[in-house]
Design brief:
The complex is a heterotrimer.
Chain A lengths: L1 H22 L7 E7 L3 H17 L3 E7 L2 H10 L4 E5 L7 H7 L2 E11 L1 E6 H5 L27 E2 L2 E8 L6 H12 L6 E4 L4 H14 L5 E4 L3 H5 L2 E3 L20 E8 L2 H4 L1 H9 L4 H14 L3 H11 L2 H6 L2 H11 L1
Parallel strand pairs in A: 1-2, 7-8
Antiparallel strand pairs in A: 3-11, 4-11, 5-9, 5-10, 6-7
Helix pairs in contact in A: 2-11, 2-12, 2-14, 11-12
Chain B lengths: L1 H5 L10 H14 L1 H24 L2 H16 L2 H16 L3 H31 L1 H16 L2 H12 L3 H25 L3 H9 L4 H30 L1 H5 L6 H10 L3 H33 L1
Chain C lengths: L4 E12 L3 H9 L4 H8 L2 E12 L3 E6 L5 H8 L7 E6 L2 E2 L5 H11 E4 L11 H5 L1 H5 L4 H14 L15 H14 L4 E5 L7 H18 L2 E6 L2 H7 L2 E6 L2 E6 L1 H6 L4 H8 L9 H4 L6 E3 L4 H11 L3 E5 L5 E6 H10 L13 E2 L5 H10 L4 E4 L5 E5 L1 H7 L1
Parallel strand pairs in C: 3-8, 3-9, 6-7, 7-8, 11-12, 14-15
Antiparallel strand pairs in C: 1-2, 1-4, 4-5, 9-10, 12-13, 15-16
Helix pairs in contact in C: 1-2, 7-8, 14-15
Bound molecules: adenosine-5'-triphosphate and magnesium ion.
């Protein structure tokens, strides 16, 4: 009895491995493209879109991701172990200008030209939400400076006399600028500047407040699933001025999220380089795709397919005609 | 057919994630008052501890630690070493951060003892309780901390409270386990002797089992402290100030050198706490041979 | 008074395991312990055990390891509960006791001494000895006074405030004994109390126990697997085998009339010189004379009995000494009373002097040794040959 079970299992295992072996295809000289996966949603989605195109529109490439923190991946890319960083928040990488100047990192293109960041509040804080029975709490809140009038609206439960303002992530450039802004507008008198150590916690605190209909003010950026999903308002600030922005005295510029590569990539995959130079989405588009992802519980891979079908015209902008066709075929 | 053999069938997969999400959201909405009350209490206690630590002048704290180190180890050199280590922390400019870190660690250790000790006793005394609680402990010990970090934020907002909760969930386990282990493994004849002299169950527990289990319980306390220390950086992820946050700030900027300092300070605090409590364990053991 | 029964055990059976009824059936069919265990997985720790312990006696239970000694002694203070059968303490069925009565029994009537001492290492000697009083809620002052008394009774003065870990094995068991006595119980249960001690210390402790027992007149139920210890301490000895009691007797009767081959073999290991005493080997003196008897009369007595010495007693049978035939003849020649010729410097022993203790005397003595009672009345004599042949 026991023996026959073992035999059956062994048989099943053999069949499976043989079948599995058959399914491996033997194309000549396949190059593996490695891209960073730094753990945030929009990048994963962008990666999946690229992956679908690379695997279906081109012949000789395999595609894999290197999961890790952005700093680790950045070092790996300088070393040439990772080929590409799709959706690179270069403004947050202190050494970026230096690395480009040294030729360790190569600018490939701009993926998202219009990414916004700054201080956000849920819309119901300003306008209320009759459906959820929420009264407007700060009807006149429009600008960052207006916050001065409303510290009591955003109480810090560890120090209730003051308001709480959530800063950006420790170590990000945006965080340093935001802190200067906080001092510049005199918010430091009535607000505590609270830094959470991770994006997950920052978003969780926002989601939690949103869930309870509580006021919340803090740093956020687009595109993310949370800006796609929650109804948030970006507080206005003085118009962008390149000279003042680093001191926090004006709004953040619309940030460009770039595609950057290791120095070896151009040589390794010249045809792909053409695609990545043109690969471009937009803050709005991606936020919507992320909200789709969050609402339907789809995988990033599925959301990528959905995106490519939904915005079919992008394929023509990104790819030569015959490659675009191949991708379309694979989509259907 | 081939697909079914190679890949786990898609039809068999299901997703409870959404239900749980929804549940946490609803729960936090419906129990607002209680959660807020807990939050306020926790914040007040941690602040109290921090205040206590902060009113002790830095030099006095160093002297106290030096004396403790000397008394417990019985060697003057050890006391001096601890003093030097603490002075190093101060000269790194991290004294205040150390106190912040310590107040969360101390608060969660106290909470772990308050909850963990009676639970450990209960498990030791009651088979039914044991069969319920033990699997939960296994779960708490193996579940990656990150998984409950976000729900902790959903329930208790950010900062000290969820940090305390997450730390306690992680650190309480050895306290419970070692307490029950210690009590169960008290020499059977000694317990029998207590019974034979007409002790009630409570008397046996209080006069014999717990004191006899003390070295083991102290070992549990030591482990709890160490585990609480190891959560310092994780807690920074949800906004707890202190040494952990300094490390995060530096590592996110790829400033390895700057991250090293608070890292070393955490090690220093951990070493001192470990040696002091282990010294106590050894003493207890020596007393009881 | 002396024969009052304090503990009575009736048909006690104790089984460990699940399938008890099956095991009982097999036992009743006459199966032995091993067979029952193999067939049912049930351990028969005790089977139909009955005995009585009389007030003031030392009742020893002896048997090989696993024979059920610990099981039965633990039943006496209900640390174990019998599967069936009854145990009476002063005519009360201990199974019927309420919780409170049981605590009372353990606090005031029965104390226990353990093989590995069962001392609490986190307490000092004093705190250990006072433990039983502490759980009774006796005031601190009073219990320390009592504890002190007990500590000096077992010879540990000056050690009151020492931790247990600083004591030697023998001292630890003295603490165990003092703790048990501090409650002033009627019965002491001792489960192999001296087995963990080395032989010299063990001898001391046995002596100590006997002297304390004589002083305080406690009833003792004592467990051992050492037949010499059993015979040395026991007024009554019960032998157990595989959960049953196979013989209950005084050491002497057991030594003289073992119930079966097993007991006989067991006793074979015993040093009989330590069990048998003068009363087992003595004979009535064949020739006894009085101090005031005329020498001629003494000579007549001696020659009639065909012996060379006569024991001289007074009117109330008190032993005065020995007179030899040579001296009797001299007295007669010189015409003086025999009192001047009595050898008054002779060895005497008691009825219960152990043979082991007489060996030296018999070697030294010129005459058979006289056995006297506490009033020095002659009861019998023990000859050298009788001593040697008893071994
Ligand atoms: N709790 C228990 N569960 C199962 N079996 C037990 C238990 N306690 C005792 N026994 C069994 O009962 C039998 C009698 O054990 P007991 O301890 O009374 O022997 P003992 O005569 O005191 O032996 P020793 O000289 O080794 O102390 C043994 O076979 C033992 O294995
Ligand atoms: Mg035993």
């Amino acid at each position: 009895m026991k023996r026959s079970i073992v035999l059956m299992l062994a048989l099943a295992f053999c069949i499976t491995t043989v079948l599995g072996g058959c399914s491996g295809n033997e194309k000549a000289e396949i190059k593996t493209i490695t891209v960073t996966n730094n753990g945030w949603d929009s990048q994963m989605l962008h990666n999946e879109i690229a992956k679908f195109i690379v695997l279906n529109g081109y012949e000789n490439y395999d595609f894999q991701t290197s999961t890790g923190s952005s700093t680790m991946n950045w070092q790996a890319m300088i070393a040439g172990d990772v080929d590409l960083d799709i959706e690179s928040w270069t403004d947050n990488v202190a050494t970026y200008p230096e690395d480009v100047a040294n030729g360790d990192i190569v600018d490939v293109g701009v993926l998202v030209p219009d990414s916004a960041q700054g201080l956000y509040v849920p819309r119901y804080v300003i306008e209320g939400d009759p459906e959820r029975g929420i009264e407007p709490m700060a009807p006149d809140l429009k600008t960052v400076e207006d916050l001065k009038k409303y510290p009591h609206i955003f109480p810090d439960d560890e120090e209730p006399e003051k308001g709480r303002l959530y800063g950006s992530l420790p170590g990000w450039m945006a965080d340093e600028i935001l802190y200067k802004k906080y001092e510049y507008y005199g918010l430091n008198e009535s607000y505590n500047y609270v830094r959470l150590g991770s994006e997950a916690a920052l978003f969780a605190s926002l989601a939690s407040a949103y869930n309870l209909g509580d006021p919340w003010v803090g740093y956020c950026y687009e595109p993310t699933w949370i800006t796609g999903k929650l109804d948030l308002v970006l507080l206005e600030d003085a118009p962008y001025d390149p000279d003042l922005y680093l001191e926090g005295k004006c709004e953040f510029p619309k940030q460009e999220l770039k595609i950057v590569s290791s120095s070896k990539f151009a040589e390794k995959a010249p045809d792909l380089l053409e695609f990545f130079k043109k690969y471009k989405t937009g803050s709005q588009l991606i936020s919507e795709a992320l909200a789709y992802l969050d609402e339907t519980g789809a995988t990033h891979e599925e959301a990528a397919k959905w995106f490519l079908k939904e915005y079919d015209y992008l394929l023509d902008e990104w790819l030569p005609a015959e490659r675009a066709e191949k991708v379309r075929e694979a989509l259907n | 057919m081939k697909d079914y053999l190679l890949h786990f069938p898609k039809e068999w997969q299901f997703d409870v994630g959404d239900t749980i999400d929804l549940w946490i959201k609803t729960f936090s909405r419906e129990n607002r008052e209680i959660l807020t009350a807990i939050r306020n209490f926790v914040i007040a206690s941690i602040k109290g501890i921090n205040w206590l630590l902060a009113i002790i002048p830095w030099w006095l704290l160093i002297i106290i630690v030096m004396i403790l180190g000397w008394r417990i180890s019985g060697r003057k050199r050890v006391g001096l070493l601890y003093g030097a280590m603490l002075i190093f922390v101060g000269s790194c400019g991290l004294w205040v951060h150390m106190l912040e870190t310590l107040s969360i660690v101390i608060a969660s250790v106290i909470l772990s003892v308050i909850l963990g000790f009676p639970l450990g006793v209960l498990i030791a005394m009651n088979k039914r309780a044991e069969s319920i609680i033990r699997p939960i402990l296994d779960l708490m010990q193996t579940m990656p901390t990150f998984v409950y970090l976000v729900p902790a934020v959903m329930l208790f907002s950010t900062g000290k409270t969820p940090a305390l909760m997450a730390t306690t969930i992680y650190a309480i386990v050895p306290m419970i386990r070692m307490t029950s282990h210690g009590i169960i493994h008290v020499n059977g004849e000694v317990v029998e002797a207590a019974k034979a002299f007409g002790s009630t169950n409570l008397q046996t527990l209080v006069k014999v089992q717990i004191p006899q289990a003390m070295p083991t319980i102290m070992t549990g306390l030591n482990q709890t402290i160490m585990m609480a220390m190891s959560m310092v950086v994780t807690c920074a992820l949800i906004g707890a100030q202190g040494l952990g946050m300094e490390i995060l700030l530096a590592t996110n900027r790829t400033e390895m050198g700057k991250a090293l300092m608070p890292g070393i300070c955490i090690v220093i605090v951990a070493i001192i706490l470990d040696r002091l409590t282990q010294g106590l364990v050894k003493r207890k053991e020596a007393e009881q041979q | 008074m002396k024969d009052e029964v304090i503990i009575k055990v009736e048909n006690v059976t104790k089984l460990y395991g699940i399938n008890k009824s099956e095991a009982i059936k097999l036992m009743k069919e006459g199966a032995d312990k091993d067979t029952v265990y193999k067939k049912t997985g049930v351990t028969v720790a005790l089977w139909d055990v009955s005995f009585e312990v009389k007030k003031g006696e030392v009742f020893v239970i002896i048997g090989l390891s696993g024979s059920g000694k610990s099981t039965i002694i633990r039943c006496l203070n209900k640390l174990n509960r019998p599967t069936s059968g009854k145990i009476y303490f002063q005519n009360n069925d201990i199974d019927q006791l309420s919780k409170k009565e049981l605590l009372d029994l353990r606090r005031n009537k029965i104390s226990m001494v353990f093989q590995n001492f069962g001392l609490m290492s986190h307490r000092t000697v004093m705190e250990n000895v006072a433990y039983g009083l502490e759980v009774k809620k006796v005031s601190k002052e009073e219990r320390e006074k009592k504890a002190k008394e007990m500590i000096s009774l077992v010879g540990l003065e000056g050690w009151e405030h020492q931790p247990i870990s600083s004591l030697s094995g023998g001292m630890k068991q003295r603490v165990g004994l003092a703790r048990a006595l501090a409650n002033d119980p009627e019965v002491l249960l001792m489960d192999e109390p001296f087995s963990a001690l080395d032989p010299l210390v063990k001898r001391d402790m046995q002596f100590e126990l006997l002297s304390i027992q004589r002083k305080l007149q406690k009833t003792v139920v004592f467990i051992t697997h050492d037949i010499n210890e059993a015979f040395k301490l026991g007024d009554t000895v019960a032998i157990m085998r595989d959960g049953r009691i196979i013989q209950i007797d005084t050491p002497q009767d057991m030594a003289l009339n073992p119930a079966d081959e097993y007991v006989a073999k067991f006793i074979d290991g015993a040093d009989k010189s330590k069990v048998l005493s003068a009363k087992h080997v003595m004979i009535t003196p064949r020739c006894m004379v009085r101090e005031k008897d005329a020498p001629i009369h003494v000579i007549e007595e001696l020659s009639r009995n065909d012996v060379s010495t006569a024991y001289v007693v007074d009117d109330s049978m008190k032993l005065l000494g020995v007179i030899s035939i040579d001296n009797a003849i001299r007295a007669r020649k010189e015409n003086i009373p025999i009192s001047d010729f009595i050898d008054r410097d002779i060895y005497t022993i008691r009825r219960d002097t152990l043979i082991v203790d007489m060996l030296q005397l018999t070697a030294k003595s010129k005459y058979p040794i006289a056995v006297v009672d506490e009033k020095n009345r002659l009861k019998g004599i023990v000859s050298k040959s009788a001593v040697l042949s008893s071994l």
